[in-house]
Amino acid sequence: MKHTTVCYLIKHSPELEVLLGLKKVGFGRGKYAGIGGKVEAGESIAEAAIREVEEEIGVKIPINSIQHMGIVSFLFPSKVEWNQEVSIFTTHNWQGEPIESEEMKPFWFKFADIPYQSMWQDNRFWLPQILDGNKLNLTISFKNDNETVDEVF
Q1: What Cα–Cα distance (Å) separates residue 111 from each residue in 15, 105, 114, 130, 134?
Q2: What are the angstrom distances between the C-alpha of 37 and each of 9, 13, 14, 150?
Q3: Which candidate, 75, 47, 57, places its Cα nearest to that of 143?
């Protein structure tokens, strides 16, 4: 199972907002998601999350400003090469303004306006918990269409 990261930038302005990226290429193309990607050899999961955020939206996160919120394992029984364990992070502190890259186009959303209908279906099950500050560890299994959540455990 491959190991990946996702990070959510959260700001107060004056309402809480979260940054999501519209995926422009590759896995999840056309869906909104947190910012992240694969862990490379020799780096910690926190270092991977920080590197991916800088590569995808151009902002720098100080290592002491990133919070590990848990792990979600994703199982795709009909496409096992998609199986992955995702380490989830949040941060309220970064340097720079998010910019569009070849991979992601960043957008800020108020928590009440998160476009769950344009995200992977599983986000409804765990993203609100993360944004409420709760840590979690769960597994999500998809049906054979690789889109519909089958089980959450």
Answers
A1: 8, 18, 6, 11, 15
A2: 15, 27, 30, 24
A3: 75
pLDDT in tens, 34-49: 999 999 999 999 999 9
Q: Work out the angle at residue 93's Cα, subtended by the Cα atoms of residues 3 and 54, and round it to the nearest 5 degrees.
A: 50
Question: 21 in a domain, yes or no?
Answer: yes
**Phi/psi class of residue 26: alpha, beta or left (left: φ > 0; alpha: ψ in -120 to 50)?**
left
Residue 116 lies in a domain: yes
One DSSP character per residue, 100-119 reads: --SSEEEEEEEGGG--GGGB
Q: How confident is the model at residue 10 (pLDDT cuts 50, 70, 90)?
A: very high
Q: Does 102 reside within a domain?
A: yes
Share of the chain above pLDDT 70, in %: 100
Which residue range is the domain that position 119 belongs to? Answer: 2-70+90-137
Give the chain's domain count.
1
Q: What is the CATH number of the domain that holds 63?
A: 3.90.79.10
Whole-structure pTM value: 0.95
